[in-house]
Write a structure and sequence with these properties.
Order of helices and strands: EHEHHEEHEHEEHEHHHHHEHEHEEHHE
Largest sheet: 8 strands, mixed
Structural class: alpha/beta
CATH class of the largest domain: Alpha Beta
CATH topology of the largest domain: Rossmann fold
Strand order of the largest sheet: 3-2-1-4-5-6-7-8
Bound molecules: nicotinamide-adenine-dinucleotide
Number of strands: 13
Distance between the termini: 59 Å
Shape: globular
Helix content: 25-40%
CATH superfamily of the largest domain: NAD(P)-binding Rossmann-like Domain
Number of domains: 3
Strand content: 5-15%
CATH architecture of the largest domain: 3-Layer(aba) Sandwich
């Protein structure tokens, strides 16, 4: 492996762009994506994921980095880092198409001694059993003789400006002990939090997928407890506050589990487990509980409306927040849509207030998006605060009361309403 490294980052999304930016401070970098609009926007200094500021995108460009959709621009790179999506299909099975396609594309430009590092979240075995055969077939070269691979999962949290890519300890792995060292040294140049060299690529792949699976299962437990305490008329948040006074209690709040990581990655693990003949009942049960929370929140709101003598059919209900989590514009796999569709089935009329997403993303939905409802005259029978955006936290009790028709009814999914 030559000491001079030219890095290509493939897939400039939430993971790829901040990584490309970080590497651009030390290396020549090409940011590659198949989405021409995305590349055009980045060349104009605009990151629609809001992970980088305009100044940061422009700094990357000044650092000799280019954003491109052109294969010719990545031909002379010698390290390829793949950060493409790893979604699931409608039957919750891993969809490896972006990984396969990007591997086939890299195969076309792969040269002797190049390294291909995968960062996308996968089940153990994907790098060596799915991606490597694609690289070998399209490059006509031999794995671990002519070219090498690495795996280094990303742990960023969209919207989190504290735990940014360079500040999170990074797991690294390589296809040979020597390449593991090269990969580890490469990341050490930008990751100030340090690295952990895993014993194999499969170990690194498994480590990432269990981080998110553990979180999913833990949240499912809290969600299940919330359903139980609800039948007992006990406030779950009060119970959690009390229990969390014990040093080893894991303090999580009940809520929706959406997005493309925690609600998706466990299915990668369960798919592989089932393929190998093991039925992962606990993990799948957790998924089922978390997937059911949107419907539960809607039903709970409807019950309260009925109790308070409010008609559900044609009732105006305000949904605050649509993104899958607070303080970010990411709407992928948001579970707020489950709340809305359930309410719509009962004939309610829904307004959505979501200050974080732009007009283009609103076009995906057939919803009535409203500007700040606290500045309008319209009154609602019920409000569901579905996402804990910071701007929602400063809304006062009086402001809520001013837009509610009759008796106050607010379903506070994130526990942020005064
Ligand atoms: N977003 C997160 O917070 C996060 C955190 C940790 C890990 N991950 C994992 O990282 C991976 C990427 O996630 P993301 O959120 O950055 O996805 P993303 O959808 O934001 O970005 C992926 C980018 O890859 C591009 N792309 C798709 N196919 C391509 C191809 N064949 N060639 C080149 N570019 C291609 C898309 O156009 C898109 O711009 C996933 O495996 C995800 O599970 C994501």
């Amino acid at each position: 492996m030559p000491s001079h490294k030219k890095i290509c980052i493939i897939g400039l999304g939430y993971v790829g762009l901040p990584l490309a930016h970080a590497f651009s401070s030390k290396f020549e970098v090409v940011g590659f994506d198949i989405n021409t609009t995305r590349v055009q926007e980045l060349n104009n200094g605009f990151d629609r994921t809001l992970e980088l500021t305009s100044d940061e995108v422009k700094q990357s460009l000044k650092n000799n980095m280019i954003f491109s959709t052109n294969l010719d621009d990545i031909k002379d790179c010698n390290v390829y880092i793949v950060t493409v999506p790893t979604p699931i299909d409608s039957s919750n099975r891993p969809d490896l198409t972006p990984l396969i396609k990007s591997s086939q594309m890299i195969g076309k430009v792969l040269k002797k001694d190049d390294i291909v590092i995968y960062e996308s979240t996968v089940y153990p075995g994907v790098t060596e059993e799915v991606c490597v055969p694609q690289l070998e077939a399209t490059s006509n070269m031999k794995f671990n003789t002519d070219f090498f691979c690495g795996y280094s999962p990303e742990r960023i949290n969209p919207g989190d400006k504290e735990h940014t890519v360079t500040k999170i300890l990074k797991i690294t792995a390589g296809s040979t002990p020597q390449i593991a060292n090269v990969v580890d040294e490469l990341y050490k140049t930008i990751i100030t939090a340090g690295t952990h060299k895993a014993s194999s690529i499969k170990v690194a792949e498994a480590a990432k997928v269990i981080e998110n699976t553990q979180r999913d299962v833990n949240i499912a437990l809290v969600n299940e407890l919330a359903l139980i305490f609800d039948t007992m008329n006990i406030d779950t948040n009060d119970v959690i506050e009390a229990a969390a006074t014990k040093w080893n209690f894991i303090k999580l709040k009940p809520g929706l589990v959406g997005g493309h990581c925690i609600g998706v990655d466990p299915y990668y693990l369960t798919f592989k487990a089932e393929e190998l003949g093991y039925k992962p009942n606990l993990i799948l049960g957790a998924r089922q509980i978390n997937n059911g929370m949107g419907k539960y929140i809607a039903e709970k709101t409807i019950k309260l409306m009925i109790k308070k003598g409010k008609l559900v059919k044609d009732a105006d209900i305000l949904i605050m927040g649509l993104t899958f989590k607070e303080n970010c514009p990411d709407i992928r796999n948001t579970k707020v849509v489950d709340i809305i569709s359930e309410l719509q089935e009962y004939g309610a009329k829904i307004d959505v207030y979501e200050p974080w997403i732009d007009e283009k993303d609103k076009d995906y939905y057939d919803y009535n998006f409203v500007e700040n409802p606290f500045k309008n005259e319209k009154k609602y029978e019920a409000i569901i605060v579905a996402v804990g955006h910071d701007e929602f936290k400063s809304i006062s009790e009086d402001e809520y009361t001013s837009i509610i028709n009759g008796e106050r009814l607010i379903t506070d999914v994130k526990g942020i309403v005064p």
